[in-house]
């Protein structure tokens, strides 16, 4: 199963990497006595297949250390994706994955033992580190900045910036604006995939009229219980109020209990607190609070539940429910886009990780730039042979994805007509995003706490 903490990573077999390695062997630059300085192009000959790497210069003899929360075996696709950079530039990338990453990275910064580059899973954590250690983080270099401007939605630069300075470049991504369903159940019942919010509600009403319970949900997640409910509110607010209001809300330019937020919570409640709609396979409305989010969609496989709103990374959970479950458009389960208010709008809620440099050296800037390039993305995608990793790079080759849901996610992220927004709770202060917001959404479900009281209490907790 995929937990919130490990979303975006997957177990990846790399049996096909041998062929990749053979292809890249031609990329190894011929040794030269004249090419001893990192970043010094000189007159060296560029090996066939390494043309895209010429911009990084000759980095022979240099080393870049990478520190992440991604550990074995999920780390292997990352490590293998560095091979073209190493072979074509001469640099060595040293990877260090730690389950204590979030606790140890501040310790390393404090002690002067910073990694060259860290993969940081939340913009809020990145902002805290930059502000707590103002002399540690290095502004993104020109080449990486150029790549982000060319290949990523402008919002990614905003999320990677702290107080106006660009520190974090996008790495992986995930899409949360999905509704999981059974294609065969829909086909047999004659149901169409809804294209608008009104059609989604009409479909839910039709399922009730036909004797079914349309939705199943669960927000239990250990110490992080409540976060799936915050995703519901974020996704719906992005649809009912629009991206500008969403931005104002997460930055507290408008209060948490603004009337537009109240309207969105009312819309969420029209589904999650409607006893006719939920909680198929588990119980009543209150059962949502105690149902593990990782299991919440499983009644779809038994025909009890028709729809389950959850992110792209939920794809990894189906196999644990029933071995052999196929995630595909014509498979046992698949997902459709969580519809907007109209077909003219396409808001997409998601999340992702960022790379932050803590060393100002040419090889570090070059490697950070490589991680923003189509060359890296299109090398890494096929290394995830069972899926579970997605990029927001607009120049990626989506046909390389092994998983149909990963391919669909990437297409959503790369769609120029889509408006991407990052998970708000990951951007808000910790007192809100990982505390009051989670807690009050649990109270809203478990204790049927009044909408206004929930929003007022979260607003009162804002630091």
Radius of gyration: 23 Å
Please, how many domains?
A: 2
What is the CATH superfamily classification of the largest domain? Answer: Periplasmic binding protein-like II
What form results from the Cα inertia axes?
globular
The count of β-strands is 12
Q: Give the CATH level 1 class of the largest domain.
A: Alpha Beta
pLDDT below 50 for ≥5 consecutive residues: which ranges? 1-38
Helix content: 25-40%
Q: Please report the number of helical segments.
A: 19
CATH architecture of the largest domain: 3-Layer(aba) Sandwich
- Tell me the CATH topology of the largest domain: D-Maltodextrin-Binding Protein, domain 2
Determine the N-to-C terminus distance. 34 Å
Could you report the average pLDDT, rounded to the nearest whole number?
Answer: 90
Percentage of residues in DSSP E strands: 5-15%
Structural class by secondary-structure content: alpha/beta
Largest sheet: 6 strands, mixed
Descriptive overview:
With 463 residues, the protein is α/β, with parallel strands linked by helices. It folds into 2 domains: 4-175 and 351-418, Periplasmic binding protein-like II (D-Maltodextrin-Binding Protein, domain 2), CATH 3.40.190; 178-348 and 423-461, Periplasmic binding protein-like II (D-Maltodextrin-Binding Protein, domain 2), CATH 3.40.190. 38% of the residues lie in helices and 13% in strands. The chain has helices at 17-25, 76-81, 83-89, 101-111, 123-132, 142-151, 154-159, 183-189, 197-209, 227-240, 243-250, 259-272, 287-290, 318-321, 362-370, 374-380, 404-414, 430-446, 451-461; strands at 63-68, 92-97, 117-120, 161-162, 165-166, 168-175, 178-181, 213-215, 305-309, 334-337, 347-357, 419-422. Helix 6 (142-151) packs parallel to helix 15 (362-370) and helix 10 crosses helix 12 (259-272). Residues 1-38 have low confidence and may be disordered. It comes from Actinotalea soli. Residues 1-21 form the signal peptide.
């Amino acid at each position: 199963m995929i937990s919130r903490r490990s979303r975006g990573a997957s177990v990846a077999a790399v049996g096909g990497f041998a062929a990749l390695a053979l292809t890249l062997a031609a990329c190894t630059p011929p040794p030269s006595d004249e090419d001893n300085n990192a970043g010094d192009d000189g007159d060296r000959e560029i090996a066939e297949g390494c043309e895209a790497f010429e911009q990084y210069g000759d980095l022979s003899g240099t080393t870049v250390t990478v520190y992440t929360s991604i550990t074995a075996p999920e780390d292997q696709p990352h490590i293998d994706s560095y091979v073209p950079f190493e072979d074509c530039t001469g640099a060595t990338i040293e990877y260090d994955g730690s389950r204590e990453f979030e606790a140890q990275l501040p310790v390393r910064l404090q002690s002067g033992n910073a990694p060259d580059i860290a993969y940081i899973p939340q913009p809020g954590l990145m902002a805290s580190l930059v502000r707590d250690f103002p002399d540690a983080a290095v502004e993104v270099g020109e080449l990486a900045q150029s790549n982000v401007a060319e290949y990523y939605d402008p919002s990614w630069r905003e999320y990677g910036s702290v107080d106006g300075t660009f520190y974090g470049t996008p790495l992986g991504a995930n899409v949360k604006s999905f509704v999981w369903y059974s294609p065969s159940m829909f086909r047999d019942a004659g149901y169409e995939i809804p294209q608008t919010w009104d059609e989604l509600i009409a479909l839910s009403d039709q399922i009730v009229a036909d004797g079914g319970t349309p939705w199943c949900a669960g927000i239990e997640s250990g110490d992080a219980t409540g976060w799936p409910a915050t995703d519901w509110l974020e996704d719906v607010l992005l649809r009912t109020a629009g991206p500008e209001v969403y931005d104002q809300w997460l930055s507290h330019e408008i209060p948490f209990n603004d009337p537009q937020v109240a309207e969105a919570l009312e819309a969420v409640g029209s589904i999650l607190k409607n006893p006719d709609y939920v909680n198929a396979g588990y119980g009543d409305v209150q059962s949502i609070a105690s149902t593990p989010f990782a299991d919440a969609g499983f009644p779809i496989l038994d025909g009890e539940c028709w729809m389950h709103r959850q992110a792209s990374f939920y794809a990894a959970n189906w196999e644990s429910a029933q071995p052999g479950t196929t995630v595909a458009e014509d498979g046992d389960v698949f997902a459709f886009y969580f519809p907007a208010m109209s077909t003219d709008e396409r808001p997409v809620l998601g999340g992702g990780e960022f790379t932050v440099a803590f060393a100002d050296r040419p090889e570090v800037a070059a490697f950070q730039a490589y991680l923003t390039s189509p060359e890296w993305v299109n090398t890494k995608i096929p290394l995830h042979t069972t899926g579970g990793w997605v990029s927001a790079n607009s120049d990626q080759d989506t046909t390389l994805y092994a998983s149909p849901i990963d391919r669909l996610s990437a297409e959503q992220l790369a769609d120029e007509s889509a408006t991407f927004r990052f998970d708000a709770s990951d951007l808000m202060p910790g007192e809100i995003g990982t505390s009051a917001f989670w807690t009050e959404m649990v109270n809203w479900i478990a204790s049927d706490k009044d909408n206004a009281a929930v929003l007022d209490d979260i607003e009162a907790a804002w630091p």
